[in-house]
Amino acid sequence: MSYEFSGFISFYKTLEKVFWKARFPAFSCRKSKRLYSQFVHVFLHVLKEQFRLSYREVVEFAKSFRLERLFCIRRIPHFSTLQKFLQRIDKTLFERLVRACSRVLKLADLSVSVDSTGMALTNPSHYYQNRINAPRVKNFVKFSLVIDNKSKLILNVKTHSNNQHHNPYFKPLYSETTQKIRTVLADKAYDSEENLRFVLEDLKARVFIPVREHKQQRLGYGHKPLIHGKLRRRMFQNFDIDKYHQRSNVESTISSVKRLHGASVQARLPQNQEKNATIKALTYNIKKTQKLTKITIKIET
User: What pairs with residue 185 in β-bridges?
Assistant: First the structure.
């Protein structure tokens, strides 16, 4: 099996910088055996998503390139150790790593966009469902993210496996972001008086969300639009379509994540599926941060 990975050391240094910027705990608890730090586990999981490998394949990759010397450990952890780490770690810690990338780049005065998509599941596979004549169920992991329109960096991400609308995650996506936000762009799915009030009053930012047009709201001869809410009526009257077109950056980012790191998750348990999708966003951010930063590496001979 051949692997092509340019800038491997800078990738390692970038993830290490993000890891400490996020204040990720080095070990899971005070009584840990300290055989492997949590940075080793995170790096191998990111490496797994970077090359779309299985747990056994990523361990083989690490052994073939002797990464134990890079980590300063005696041996590469067993693949079951990586699986147990993913099962016990909290998803919010991976989300903290995603948010830390923007602090490494020192982004400020942002114009951001928010959107959601679905990550397909491979357990059970469509082939197995056809063999047992099982009913087709549309199961997927909902993947909500907010990005910077200029750098296309993911500022925050939320994942959930339950079948519900992504509008409740609008406020948490922005409230956990520490950078100053100037403009917020979103599609009609986030059109509500509560969301508009949150952006205008709490974030002190401009907002562009198109107002949904129901049958009784459509303009016609001798009719006026019936739009509830003072802020929604103001948005309908003063909507800037040219500014709103910048929201296409979040569609491009979602396409990049799925194209580079896969559009499906491999985990079996719902909580692990959510973590797997979050690690995909982290892997994308590390590569993007690596390109936008200049890390100097000194080699002594």
Answer: 113, 208
